[in-house]
Amino acid sequence: MIQYQKGIILIAVVLAFLAPAVSAADEISSSVPLGSAETVVRAESPVPVPAPASAVATASEPAGNYTKLEIQPTYMNFVVEPGETKEMTVTLRNRDTKSVQVRPTVRMQPYSGPFVAENSWTSVTPQSADIPAGESAKFTVRVSVPAGTLRGMYSSQLTFTDEAYPTPYPQPFPNYLHTLSLMINVASTPVIQISTPYISDQLEAGSEYSYSIDVKNKGTTPLALNAKVGEDGYPMYGPYGPQEPPLTAKSFAISAPATIPPGRNGTVTVRVNVPQNASGYYNGNIDLGIDDPSIRLEENRIQLNFLVWKQPEGGFSKKFSVTGTEPIGIELTSAMPMMSPVTGDGVSRNIPRREPSFDASLTGPDGKANLVLVEKVIKGSVNLGTDPYLGNGNQPGKYQESGSQYIFTYSAQGRPGQWTLAVMPRNTQSFEYRISLGGGEPAPATQLFSVPAMYAPNPSGK
Fold first, then answer.
1. CATH numbers and ranges of domains, the chain
2. Of 190, 192, 198, whose CA–CA distance to 400 is shortest?
3. pTM
4. What is the per-residue pLDDT across 47-80, written as a single tens digit (0 to 9) for each?
């Protein structure tokens, strides 16, 4: 009985809650006049009422009441030498139902980086036009780059109307609707040609090295040089943060001519005095100090990349086992050095104590074996050292050795037991070893071991 009464009370509360909502709906329905934009659809109505379609923007026609102009092309790329003028044609077609007045205007391209074209470089003719509906008009875009302009890619734009896309928030630059993007590539030819624009090598602590770089003046006026060590080298990082470079400006001595006459060559000599206790990586540059608008910053430099290392006091040892009486072959290969430049006449640079070598010994169960050098192989990689991007296309390249290896092969007669190979490398920062067992008789036919006198054979047989 109690549950029945609770159910009646709950139904009464629900009806009391729904009554105001129904009456409010009736009031709204009776207050809306005929022909109003708003329509109230009752829940019991079986007829669906379509919602009004909203304007949707597309790629070819943005939403809104904008002038319909077709621009062909929408992008132009001018390749111009300083002091040169070039022209291109753009066509505007009026796709609208009414006549359109256009006025080409040169404007700065927003967010285009440091190379922004001056508005005075670009002119358009005619300066304005009235294009009837469905008709077209042609405009000539003329770009003139002043002499002495720095080489690089410059950007600009043309707007044909003042119409811009609306934005819900303020913007520093209007987003114009009818635009033509302009790229002006100022492609002046560099007057300098560097035989090797970078030096990369391995330097041993306590040694001195010398590099010669050929610089050619391909211009028509004398080329002034002010070569010095650059001050913006790349920092090197170790496990505990930045590390001090193994070389400083005092480690270099540079000699170069003050000027190079037109069509002539000059030699820049870089001497490196490596400190006795230096080690690590060095990344820097030699700034030639050339003031010429046709030369980019990186083309005015000789990049330096050095691995500085110190010869260890002790040698490397490797233990291995031999199970039978068989020949032992040892092969030691020096690391492939990184690229080093040649001189102007194509002759390899003269660097003291650069040929790698090894002090190797082999010890077996009967003592120190007679390790004999069987073969020495010198191999390398050669290319044309002239940078094709800096050349003028009609000069022959120069052969440049980009790396070399020295391979030493030794042989000894092995016996069962434990053996130890000891190697002291000379003038090489790293090396590889290869131990081969068996495979033929050893080359030497001499006494292979130093046998103590007490074990020497007795001719008398006693």
1. 69-186 (2.60.40.10), 192-309 (2.60.40.10), 316-437 (3.30.70)
2. 198
3. 0.54
4. 444 434 434 444 444 555 788 999 999 999 999 9
